[in-house]
């Protein structure tokens, strides 16, 4: 699992940056990508420190409660994802078709046409 670089490494980069080292030299010396060093410099200018920000987090589902129950009932009849998106927009919930697809997929429903 990914995790942020240590604060010690960030502080060593800060010292080298203040000493006037080039970005590529610093990247090679610290064994980090050259694009990482300017990001740390930008972070220092913006926040005044080098502490890493929070990573990850839970993104709550957009389709839930009443909309989710309605959609499960609606899925019993033939549908297309774009139709469902339009119907949900009519009910006051604007979503991307991918969000509806994810809901249908998690409900283990198929939207393939029967021939």
Automatic annotation (TrEMBL):
InterPro entries: Homeodomain-like_sf
Source organism, top-level taxon: Bacteria
Full protein name: Transposase
């Amino acid at each position: 699992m990914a995790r942020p670089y240590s604060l010690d490494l960030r502080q060593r980069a800060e010292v080298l940056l203040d000493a006037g080292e080039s970005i590529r030299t610093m990247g090679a010396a610290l064994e980090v990508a050259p694009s990482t060093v300017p990001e740390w410099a930008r972070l220092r200018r913006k926040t005044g420190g080098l502490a890493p920000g929070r990573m990850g987090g839970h993104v709550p589902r957009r389709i839930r409660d009443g909309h989710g129950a309605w959609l499960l009932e609606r899925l019993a009849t033939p549908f297309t994802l774009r139709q469902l998106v339009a119907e949900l927009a009519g009910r006051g919930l604007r979503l991307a078709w991918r969000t509806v697809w994810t809901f249908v997929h998690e409900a283990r429903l198929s939207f393939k046409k029967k021939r």
